[in-house]
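Researcher: Re-running this chain for the archive, since the previous output was lost when a drive failed. Same request as before.
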Amino acid sequence: MSAVLDLKLKRANKVYHEGEVLAGVVVITGKEAIQHQGISLTMEGFVNLQLSSKSVGVFEAFYNSVKPIQLINSNIEVAKPGKVPGGKTEIPFEFPLQVKGNKVLYETYHGVFVNIQYTLRCDMRRPLLAKDLSKTCEFMLHCQPQKSKVQPSPVDFIITPETLQNVRERSVLPKFLIRGHLDATNCVITQPLTGELVVESSEVAIKSIELQLVRVETCELSFKSPYFLVGVLLSKQGCAEGYARDATEIQNIQIAEGDVSHGLPIPIYMVFPRLFTCATLETTNFKVEFEVNVVIVFHDDHLITENFPLKLCRV
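Model: Regenerated structure tokens:
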């Protein structure tokens, strides 16, 4: 059996904060003794920015990514060159999660056009004729909770044909009146989004009512970059102004199905998914923001949407 290298962190959830110590063990398993030229650990953190075809148009095949932004890159030696005995060997380690200089560690986030990822990699260098071994594991970084109390900023809403925007032929819309409220638009990311919705009246039967969570990712573009030139040439909104802004769906939850009873309160309840959401983030190079849409689908296939910007934070 060939040698197997594994990496295990002590924290089961793999969630850390800046200034804490990553502790765990390097596990080496082999039937026979293993000669090596040293074992090391490397901690890396990057922001990867990707531009959509909507932003860069026909040139996206050539220019569809931005150079990654490095947040952290540290290295420590776990074991000096030597030999590991046969069987299972565990080497404990502690790796401080600290940045050098004035760099900032952003919260882990997996998006479509913005990805913030932190990894720990173990490398075992082997003699000339043996293959080097490597094992990588991802860990999550959460930003420090804010000390000030979050003001929930609840919002009441009324949806009628007259309140809708971006409507070409308002006269063909069915008559309806929908009221509701969101308990907070400044949301604690570990707590659900809650509220209530009531269909007061509707001329047309309702087919479905849904909650759609949306990520809005913005990448700033350099004036010296080909992205800016492409944006100007194609006159894309946003891109021509020096940024690429894209909104994509994270999750969609149906809160009512069929023609619901009029005057019946329908609860709004949505949990923010881990990894795919983070505390609202705004930097000089990119922004990550969130919105929620209340979507009403009628049986005649008319679809109406009410949009609410959200601010997510940790406390």
